[in-house]
Amino acid sequence: MVFKRLTPSIETMESAAEKPHSLWVDSMARLRKNQLAVASLWIFVAIAAFCFIGPIFHPHAPDDSKITLRETPPFAEILEYEDRFGNAHQISRKDFPQRNRDLPGSVLEAVENGTSFVYKDIEYRNSKDIYFLGTDSQGRDLMARIMQGGRISLGVGFLATLIALLIGVTYGSISGYQGGRLDAFMMRTVEILYAMPFTIFVILLMVVFGRSLILIFVAIGAVEWLTMARITRNQVLQLKEQEFALAARAMGVSTPAIIRRHMIPNLLGPIVVYATLSVPAIMILEAVLSFLGLGVQPPDASWGSLISDGAQKMTSSPWLLLAPAAFFSITLFAMNFLGDGLRDALDVKSSKD
Question: How far apart are CA 16 and CA 10, in angstroms?
Fold first, then answer.
């Protein structure tokens, strides 16, 4: 009689054993299950690609002004012509009869039928240029302006948030972990800085250093880190009493190593949520500064300044407000939904695996 070996081999046991997963692998698996967060991520990636890669393929520059095309509606038919001096010009077909009241019948018929014509010895031809979102009050392509505004708004939002995170997480971690008099002193300093009026602080920076885009990053980041410092400090006060932190101290691990290896990784959830909420908040703050004349200066533009300009033309040219406001709102919603999804994915307690 032949007896089969009942004891499994080492190879069989190793193959049957489940391979351990890292925190990031498990978090990304949970994130992929959240369809709303994944859709928001792709929407945000599409908007970012539109703003940063789109200008490569777009034929119009954001500062290319054509006075004859000012406040042209989206998808308007464009006529092109050359004046007596050989200079090329463009004009909206719809706007042509309004600027030329004495049109002959044949010319008016050609304008209405969308064909080329000659008027006052000048030949008007159909142009291949298409302004998908129309033009602004100075005849600049609104889509090109929105691309430029998106680059600046997203850049301000992310870089200022990065500055706030670097300062706030470091500051709050040290304050919460050390505790005692150092914690009291650091938190009183935060409260004093909170009491400073932000607008006056920015005005003083502008007066001393002049107006620049880099200064906006510094000014906003120098204020937004205060909230992150408070959040981090409160979380660290709880984490440092957990078993893993006590065990690390008992093993003689240095304070910077404990903060770097144990405190900050366990703060990923709050940090990510704060970051995703801070980016649109900072974009709104930049829009307020631009409205007050302290933000992005012409001829550059941000979504905030475009919305401010569009609000002044809301009744006569509503697309000047609706287009940048739509991009701004979609980006805000996408980042909020993505932040909620990342929070749930990075929260180990929410895992039901």
Answer: 10
Residue with tokens 């014509």: 117
Closest CA to 125 of 59, 78, 172: 78
What would the two tokens of residue 265 be?
A: 């990784």
Nearest residue to 47 via CA among 244, 269, 283, 223: 283
DSSP-assigned states of every residue in 161-185: HHHHHHHHHHHHHHHHHH-HHHHHH
> How confident is the model over 66-124, as pLDDT tens digits?
888 888 889 888 888 887 777 888 888 887 877 777 777 778 878 877 788 787 778 88
Count Cβ neighbours within 10 Å for each residue of 293-326 and write b for 16 or more, e otherwise.
Answer: ebbbeeebbbbbbbbbbbeeeeeebebbbebbee
> 43 or 237: which carries more pLDDT confidence?
43
Please check the confidence at residue 142 and state whether its pLDDT lies above 90.
yes
CATH architecture label of 42-54+141-350: Orthogonal Bundle (1.10)
Residue type present at position 82? E
pLDDT at 285: 80
Reported pTM: 0.79
**Residue 114 in contact with residue 93, Cβ under 8 Å?**
yes
Do 161 and 280 form a contact (C-beta atoms < 8 A)?
Answer: no
Contact 81, 126 (CB under 8 A): no
Q: Between β-strands 78-82 and 88-92, what pairing exists: parallel, antiparallel or unpaired?
A: antiparallel
From-to residues of CATH 1.10.3720.10 in the chain? 42-54+141-350
* CB-CB contact of 144 with 319 (8 Å): no
Q: 89: closest CA among 100, 78, 98?
A: 78
